[in-house]
Structure formats: structure tokens, C-alpha cells
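can u pls check wat happens w/ adenosine-5'-diphosphate
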Amino acid sequence: ATMPPLLSAIANAGRHGVLVKSAVVMERLGEVDAVALDKTGTLTEGTPRVTDVRPLTGSGLDEPGLLRLAAAAEHRSEHPLARAVLTAARERGLALPVAEGFGSTPGVGVRATVDAQLVAVGAPARLLADVRDTGTTAAADLAGELEDGGRTAVLVTVDGRPVGLLGVADRLRPDAAATVASLTSRTGAVPLLLTGDNPRAAARLAAEAGIEDVRAGLLPEHKVSAVRELAAAGRKVLVVGDGVNDAPALAAAHTGVAMGRAGSDLALETADAVVVRDELATVPAVIALSRRARRLVV
Ligand code: ADP
Ligand code: MG
């Protein structure tokens, strides 16, 4: 017997390096007319590097001291930023103190008890909203400076007091701009960027990738609202993401695709399809495969 077109398309998608979980998903992929991409780990390589270690004046910390605290608090996190901080600490040969009571908030950051103090590491805009302190202005200024340079600014607080910032930079995937161009030309789908990162770093990266519609500073539930709004406007949205923070949006999307290599377990389980070969260019390819198969299905 000849294989039904949608099953052949699934086999074909597999050869392209995309695991499509069902024939229904294979069919739905061809219906999408908007593609919402997450930034970190999706549009970027997802292996960010710490470029700046900046203790605040009066914090009593030097650069290794700041990095050591941040790395200790991040050490249980799967987030790409956490991996960047841990790599930086390892490269400098820092011995990490024990962290206890680890907790994380998607789209915000992490916290843990280190050296009997509560250390929080995360988005300056989110963490600074909780503190009113003399260090706040200096921290906000430094965050702005780092973000103007296209960095993701990561704030470190000790017992609610800002002690320093890390600057982190991530590179666009080599195939990001070509993928965005091919989404538009081959599939006609509108590309968008949805990110929890700061608007300046987001705008810079979107410009490099050729994306005009950028929505930054989004918490996981804001990513969901963005998808729902597009759906209410009649769009069939494909969400491409990798993080725990993307899982709700992947679930709310017409179709959700997770980036497999660095993707969190939750994202991989929630998504309808998984990019196993770590190339973004497979996304327009599977949309095209779906459309071809749909034309063959009677
Ligand atoms: P994206 O949408 O780009 O994947 P996330 O929603 O995962 O970003 O994170 C949004 C922001 O929250 C990050 O830019 C960072 O400032 C902060 N953040 C989240 N998790 C962490 C973490 N483990 N360590 C430091 N910062 C974090
Ligand atoms: Mg991400």
C-alpha cells in the first residue's frame, strides 16, 4: 500500500530533523499564518556568555565575589542564562558555596539561600520592582547601560538589596535571518518575536533577524495573551520556543514547536512537534511539507 500523504510527510519531517507527534499536527502545521518565535534559545544560539561582571559600589563584593554568589544561586536552574553564569564561574576557577532552598520563577529569575543570605538573580525590571533602596537607582542605571549595549542585564540582590549586575550576550543563530526570510517568502506567514528579555536587546536582535513585530518584557502568561490576541484576530499561530517559560504559549498556540537540543522537558512535552536537529530552518521546511501533503489529502 502507498503511505497516506500525512504519514509520508511525518517521515519526511523526521528526515529533516523534526519530530511531528501526530498526523493531526502534521496537518495543522500547514494552516499557520503567523510564527511567534521566542528569543533566547530559539532565535539565538541559546549559549549566552557572561561579558560583564559589575559589582555595585558599596556592595562589599569584588567581581569574583559577585559571580560566585550568582553562580551558587543559579546552580539548579536549567535556564540558558544560568548556564552562562555557571560557565563563567567555572572558567574563573571559582569554588561555589552551597545553595539551599532553590526556587525559580519563569520569566523572572531564581533565588536561593547562600552563606545564610537570600540571593536572587534575575531580570532587573522584575527584581527592582520589589526593592526600594539606595542601590536601586545605581542598579537601574547600570542595567540600562548594559542593555543599551545589546546585553541582557542580570541583577543580583542579597536580602533584597542590589549588589551587582552581570551582562550577558547571545548570538543570533546563523540560520535565523534566512529562516525569517523564508517564512515570509515560502509560507507567507508573518514572523513575530515574543520574549521575556528587555526591549532594547530584543529590538536589536529582531532587527538583525529581519523581524518587525517585537513584543518584549513578557512574562509567560503575557506570551499566552499575545497568542490569544492573534488568534482572536483570526491568525493561526505557530509558537516556536524552548523554555519552561514558553510552555503555556506552546499549549495555547494553534501549533507549538519546541527547539529540542537545549529545550526544557516541559517545552518538549507540551509542544506538538520537536526540532531535533538544531536548525531553525527546519520550521519553514515542515510548514511547506504539510501544505504539500494537504494538497494530496482528499
Ligand atoms: P526568553 O523569552 O527570551 O526566553 P525568559 O522568559 O526565559 O526569556 O526570561 C526572561 C528574563 O527573565 C530573562 O531575560 C532574565 O532577565 C530573567 N530570567 C529568567 N530566568 C532567569 C535565570 N535563571 N537567571 C537569570 N535571569 C533569569
Ligand atoms: Mg527561551
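The pocket of adenosine-5'-diphosphate (ligand 1) is lined by residues 38-40, 74, 77, 79, 81-82, 107-110, 121-123, 152, 154, 195-197, 243, 245 (CB under 6 Å).
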